[in-house]
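Lab notes, practical 5.
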Amino acid sequence: MTDAADLIVWRHGRTEWNDLGVFQGQADPPLDAVGHAQARAAAVVLAAFEPRVIVSSDLARARDTAAYLASSTGLPLTLDERLREMDVGEWSGRTREEIAQRFPETYAAWMDGADVRREGGENMADLAARVSESLREHLADAGRGRVVVVTHGGTARVAVLSLLGLPVECWSGFSVLANARWAALDRRRAGWRLMAYNVGVAAEQGPPGSGAASAEPVL
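Output from the prediction step:
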């Protein structure tokens, strides 16, 4: 199904912080060895879809993931800071347990599904506004050519569900993409259609217990 897609939204490979269950937000930890292997394997598959444009978040974990696809296709890589992960403020660098202890009210509201701003950070509306603006520009520049957007777990979900026109209340029904996995959409007269979600290749799985393909990876 993915071969009909006009847009592929691809999450970066694993970082050490992903493996440790630490919120990243706009912090900039690099890919770990598993993350590089994931990105390299997925890039081989995505290159076969013959993208015309590759655009990535400028954070290292996304940029270095995208570089494998750029190398495989010979395409230039465009960086866009609007595709960064949600700014999670003071949650960055902390585990869920630490956040629940330090910011119990905000954490409880977030767990209940409220669209909260993490201490000093963004909420879903903030993220959706900047991501939607970025996607409109890059998709318009590409015309009918296939675009691969390389980004982050939370940002990828917002990108996909915003294009589908789903209300924020429905977003929690979709898991965050696992490391190095992607979603594929095609553009129709009536709007965007989801072709595949949270798909990848067998080689992108980390070692047992790595958390590389968890159903709800940490941002």
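Observations recorded by the TA: The chain has seven helices and six strands. Confidence is low (pLDDT under 50) at residues 204-219.
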